[in-house]
Amino acid sequence: MLPERPSTGELQNILLDTHSQKGLEDYLEQHTMPDSDLSFSAAFQALLERHGLAKARVIQASNLDRTYAYQVLSGAKLPGRDKILALGIGAGFSVKEVQQLLKCAKTGILYSRSSRDAVILYGIENQLGLIAVNELLLERGERIIQ
Q1: pLDDT digit string, tens, across residues 14-33
Q2: 1 has pLDDT over 50
Q3: What share of the chain is helix, strand, coil (3-state, %, to 5)?
Q4: Under a CB-based contact definition with an 8 Å cutoff, are residues 120 and 113 in contact?
Q5: Structural domain includes residue 105
Q6: What average pLDDT does the chain have?
Q7: N or C: which end of the chain has fewer CB within 10 A?
Q8: What is the extent of the structural domain holding 99?
């Protein structure tokens, strides 16, 4: 059985308790990876492979322009928050997976105190498609995912 990885909060505490360059080097070696490994396209590709999903099917379900979506998935373009949400919902990813993609792209994660984000979180958790999520957003006067 693999040991549990420290939480982000635990890692921050470890880092803040580090007071030497040697300690920093040890921390970086043990607990980090290059930013290139944290890219949105790499993270999305890993999730597609884990779930056995085809890019074409996810792109179709995301309702994004096909050419643009392939550029995003290849890493040629960096998507905005709504495009990531559309792809994540289109793929049927979990809340945790979508949040991780948002972090990798350095966009804001979904925040449950935001009424729009709460509707989106509800839709993801209940495995609603993009059209159903957008309908819920419209019913509540919120901006749809485009």
Answers
A1: 889 989 999 888 888 887 76
A2: no
A3: 65, 0, 35
A4: no
A5: yes
A6: 90
A7: N
A8: 38-139
